Amino acid sequence: MPNLEHPAYPAAALLHLESLVPCRESQVSLLLSIFGERQQFSFPSIFIYGHTSSGKTYVMQTLLNTLQLPHVFVNCVECFTSRLLLEEILIQVQNCSSETEPASPVPCDTFNDFVRLFKQALVSRELQDQTLYIVLDRAEQLREMEANILPAFLRLQELTDSNVTVVLLSEIVWELFRPNVGCFDPLTLYFPDYSIGHLQKILSQNHPPEYTADFYAAYINILLGVFYMVCRDLKELRHLAALNFSKYCEPVIRGEANERDTRKLWKNIEPHLKKAMQTVYLREISSSQWERLQHDDGEPGQLKGLSAHTHVELPYYSKFLLIAAYLASYNPVRTDKRFFLKHHGKIKKTNFMKKHEKTSNHLLGPKPFPLDRLLAILYSIVDKRVAPTANIFSQITSLVTLQLLSMVGQNDQLEGPRYKCTVSLDFIRAVAR
Known about the structure:
Elements: H1 11-20, H2 25-35, E1 45-49, H3 56-66, E2 71-75, H4 82-94, H5 111-124, E3 132-137, H6 149-154, H7 156-160, E4 164-170, E5 187-190, H8 196-204, H9 213-227, H10 234-254, H11 262-276, H12 287-295, H13 316-330, H14 336-340, H15 361-364, E6 369-370, H16 371-381, H17 390-401, E7 405-412, E8 416-421, H18 425-432
Parallel strand pairs: 1-4, 1-5, 2-3, 3-4
Antiparallel strand pairs: 6-8, 7-8
Helix pairs in contact: 4-5, 8-9, 9-10, 9-11, 10-11, 13-16, 13-17, 13-18
């Protein structure tokens, strides 16, 4: 029995819509109840919120396109100013009718001009007899525009005296939107995160035609068992499923196992899923590089240093400056003579470390150091002689700009500047290689 029923729309279209939006039937049914029939006035503004990859944008696009409702769909990140946003809405309204030629951009500087031009566009395109839906995706960007934009969109039906509904899609709650002055509150609708059962059902629909649905569903079950605790993003999980499926099928292709040998298939895919755990959300390497690494049976350690957090291209002396800064931040001053001087003489081991120095310096955090100590360590770790030229000092400034070093306190003219190294040990190891 179909879950979506509405007397104003054909049953075949609703059945097709239900197949396109799995696990979101209740939200679609509620939206259809709010929308009503084509000629009926709907609620002036609707606010839909939920975490990323919860289906907000997809459900709205699929609903409006499948039922062929007149609509405008605008991404507020692309239209980052009020003028771009208003002009894009007018252009799409004028292009709603497929029988007319594409419209040319119309200059629109204020919301008063937008209301006037919007009413003219509705009359010219004969859209006043049915509801027009204006969907603003990533609507949190409206808060960065003029103060009147958001309240005006919430009352657009009243301002234009026309049958129009504004739908706002966002990842944040309405309480973070509400302006300081009073405004019309929209009807709020929440899209919850997909559960593991929903993800299993949605991802299993993408099974390749050369394999059975049960075989691909078993693979998705294994994938979710590994990644669900660290990743709930449907887009990321779909990417991981497509990326690792070929490795899961290898025993079947070689004839070493059949599609029901779940244990053999799991033992074959387990090490590769563990390697994929290192790249969740990061996109450190492309899909072709990942497949090449799988084909070469590379070790997980080969992925180290690929991330932007552990791999930065720096000039030659900047690398040594960064290493010297790390040594100066985490080694006490009293150890410099022992570590960086060739003929430092004998050092008593009994009282070498004080009680408070027995704690790991990595737990205590980086300590500030003066410029002359940084240069002294630099001269000792570089093989050849380095002259203190303007190039060296400019590279120190560049490291501060890149936030690899931070300047501590004021630049005292008597004592000179003091710095602190802000990078991690893994970062320094990658640079030191």
